[in-house]
Amino acid sequence: MTTAPTDMTGDGASQTYWERYRHQPHWRNNDDEYTAAKLGMWLFLTTELLLFSGMFVAYTIYRILHADEFARASHYYLDWRVGAVNTAVLLISSFTVAMAIRNAQLNQQFWLKINLFITIICGLFFLVAKLALEYWPKYQKGEVPGGFFSYPGSHGYVPSDYDPLFLGVYWVATAIHGSHVLIGVLLLGWCLWRAQKRHFGPRHFTSLENVGLFWHLVDLIWIFLFPLLYLVG
Amino acid sequence: MSSHDAHGHDGGGHHVAPRNLLLGVLIILLIMTVLTVYTALYVDVGAVGNLIIALFIAIFKSALVVGFFMHLHWDNKFNAVALLYCLLAIGTFMLFTITDIGSRSKIEPVRNEIIPSTQVRDAINAWKEEHGEEAYEARMAVHDDDHHGDDHGDHEGDGHGDDDHAGDDHGNDEDH
After folding, report:
1. Which helix or strand (DSSP H or E) is residue B127 part of?
2. Chain A contact for B21, CB < 8 A?
3. Which of A193, B29, B53, B124 has the most CB atoms less than 10 A away?
């Protein structure tokens, strides 16, 4: 897709992808291409926010109507410590991906790969913690949404009529968020693979930047989901 | 795109976020997370008050992420306009949802209820049928150990209770 620049010198053959990167022919220059791609990403992110806003509206309705039952269910079904650790992990991964973009801009190829690798590990940690400590035990116990709910209670805890509703909000919101984490991890893996091939550098890091934006959005959503689901007062 | 030179580095003409700034933002974000947990567990200013505190901290945290991690502070302002317009739309959804649901009880006090589900009763009855009434009583019995945890309120004792009920349920799963 890229052609070598016309002013290729003797060492042109040793140029890496980002050095010889040339914009697609319908753009005036690399900057225009980068700016347009980034605007496109921001527009996509707004649609993502609107997707999640539907879930936050549902949450708001149910919580206003059944405040006490929601607080009780939140305390019983969710362990805030799991949520807090996962919050910290996502924040750190947001930092490392921001650092990875900085590394690409400064042509620090080694640290670019290290930071992307740490980001991927953090994303995988989040997913494994979610599956192993929350989803799997909850699924086994029958603490699942709506008509699938089959948890009879334990140790003096009798589920309220609205527990299936709370778990519905919890499962749908966190699962859609979790699928975004999974997609983000795959995209970061793609970026790491490209970084390994020296595709990113000061003159070209568009895909890396946009994947970074996506990853930050995943972090943003979790910043709201954590207190709203795990710390209902 | 952006014309400013970034601290003398060659960033391809794009702004390079200073490392110490990014690190500072991360530290503030982590402190804010601790603050969120602390205020939720140990500060009681009523359910609505605690919710407002939690949301304010979350909004502050997301402003930091958007402004610095996502480079919007240095970015083409058109991207910020797209985001703000989206937030305006979300604000509209929220505003009318809250005013509607919040005021409905004044108009229709009786119908302001979602019809309760039968899932919970079905679940309890199914369990009783399978394991017997006495087994259910035993399952629901609160031991003295647990009671100690319960006395501490829903907060710090919660994790304790959760562990217990996890262990209890795994036992039951083996019965199946």
Report:
1. helix B119-131
2. no
3. B29
Residue B112 predicted with pLDDT over 60? no
Asked if residue B75 lies in contact with residue B16, where contact means CB atoms within 8 angstroms, the answer is no
**Cβ-based neighbours of A53, under 8 Å, separated by 6 or more:** B89, B90, B93, B94
Q: Return the residue matching tokens 């699928």.
A: A179
- Mean residue pLDDT across chain B: 73
Asked if B176 reaches chain A (Cβ–Cβ under 8 Å), the answer is no
In contact, A145 and A172? CB cutoff 8 Å: yes
Model pLDDT, residue A1 = 47
Closest chain A C-alpha to B60 CA, distance in angstroms: 10
pLDDT value at residue B117:
63
More confident residue, B134 or A96: A96
pLDDT of residue A178: 94
Q: Chain B closest CA to A58's CA: distance in Å?
A: 9
Token representation of residue B18? 């200073």
**What percentage of chain A has pLDDT greater than the value 70?**
94
Q: What 3-state class would DSSP assign to A205? A: coil
Q: Look at residue B148 in the predicted model and tell me its pLDDT.
A: 40
- The amino acid at residue B28 is I
How confident is the model over A81-103, as pLDDT tens digits? 999 999 999 999 999 999 999 99
Q: CB contact, 8 Å: B84 with chain A?
A: no
Mutation target for B interface from A39, A43, A46, A55: give the one with most B CBs within 10 A: A46
- Mean pLDDT, rounded, for A213-229: 93
Minimum-distance CB partner of A223 among B47, B61, B146: B61
Of 1.20.120.80, 1.10.10.10, 3.30.420.40, 1.10.287.130, the CATH number of A50-230 is 1.20.120.80
Q: What are phi and psi of A48, to 5 degrees?
A: -65, -45
Domain boundary assignment for chain B: 19-107, 119-175
- Between chain A and chain B, the number of residue pairs with CB atoms below 8 A apart is 234
Contact of B93 with chain A, judged by CB distance below 8 Å, is answered with yes
Domain residue extents for chain A:
50-230
pLDDT of residue A214: 95
